[in-house]
Amino acid sequence: MKKSTLKTIRIMVSSVIFVSLTLLFTVPATWICAHLYGFQAIQWLPAAMSFSLAICIIWLVVTLLFGRIYCSSVCPLGTWQDICSHLGCRSRGKGVTQGWYHYRPPLSMIRNIVVIITFASLLVGITFIAAFLDPSSIFHRACSTILSPTVRGIPPWIAGSISGFILSVCMMTIISIMSWKRGRMWCNSFCPVGTALGYVSRHAVMRIDIDTDRCTQCRKCEHVCKSECIDLTSHTVDGSRCVNCFNCINVCDDDAIHYTYTRKQLSIPMMQKVNGPKTAATLNRPASSAQCTSQRRTDK
Ligand code: SF4
Ligand code: SF4
Ligand code: SF4
């Protein structure tokens, strides 16, 4: 498979779902509702809020197998952020294969607090917090309060509730500026769905892995990683924040980063226990050095 294939598929699927949901939320004509409603029905948090357990569980299983496919292809707010971050990249004179991102550690405390508040409030029957933060609802509100009146030629601030319009403008402005500057920062710091799926995707079977034998530390992958989750100091990718965009695979000229079920990394850099029979040489060495040698592990 060509290394650009995964990214091409991701862009095609996310484009179809993004356009379909935009149409559904903006022009709710009967034909559109009948044919495109399925894309709304598979959104994760609305399914959880309406107790559609099957959809929730299917997405958790998919995430456990393949990582955050949901965030790369299905969530319309994720695709909107990709558009903004791409424009931000262009505005800095960077091409598709360049970037300005750098690894940053996760804002774990904020992520955990947001997800605990969201799901605890749902459990006690308070839905407005989840509705406020749910990415599908944010996108739906933006389409129905800003885009829909605009295409009908009605000033959005008089078409419906003024508070709904102001809320949508504020949320979309904040998220757009964040993604313009920092890619998927909203996704990996404030979105409760992203954090919940991230708890699962950090243990995903298929994930991005760096082959340390091939990596030349050119840092191209780090610069295009909109999740800022590739740590080249330890050659690790934070699976809880990776949104499976496959940008990193596309730019690596050394074929050192893959989407795979295998792991090929140094367990403890340059120091690994020898499991063979003891030789005279090792027996004569001090205990600490006899147990270790500078040997790389090929852990396939
Ligand atoms: S983290 Fe949230 S906003 Fe971002 S793509 Fe995933 S579900 Fe959508
Ligand atoms: S692009 Fe490839 S070679 Fe360069 S730092 Fe990333 S994994 Fe290593
Ligand atoms: S690690 Fe690769 S696939 Fe994951 S978000 Fe970063 S660039 Fe995208």
From TrEMBL:
Polar residues compositional bias, start-end: 281-300
UniProt GO MF annotations: 4 iron, 4 sulfur cluster binding; metal ion binding
GO cellular component: plasma membrane
Residue ranges crossing the lipid bilayer per the database entry: 12-38, 44-66, 113-133, 153-175
Residues of the signal peptide: none
Location of the region described as Disordered in the Swiss-Prot/TrEMBL record: 278-300
Keywords of this entry: 4Fe-4S, Electron transport, Iron, Iron-sulfur, Membrane, Metal-binding, Transmembrane, Transmembrane helix, Transport
Superkingdom field: Bacteria
InterPro entries: 4Fe4S_Fe-S-bd, Electron_Trans/Redox
SUPFAM superfamilies named among the record's database cross-references: 4Fe-4S ferredoxins (SSF54862)
The keyword Iron belongs to this UniProt entry's keyword annotation: yes
PANTHER family, A to Z: FERREDOXIN-TYPE PROTEIN NAPH
Listed name of the protein: 4Fe-4S binding protein
Species for this entry: Candidatus Amulumruptor caecigallinarius
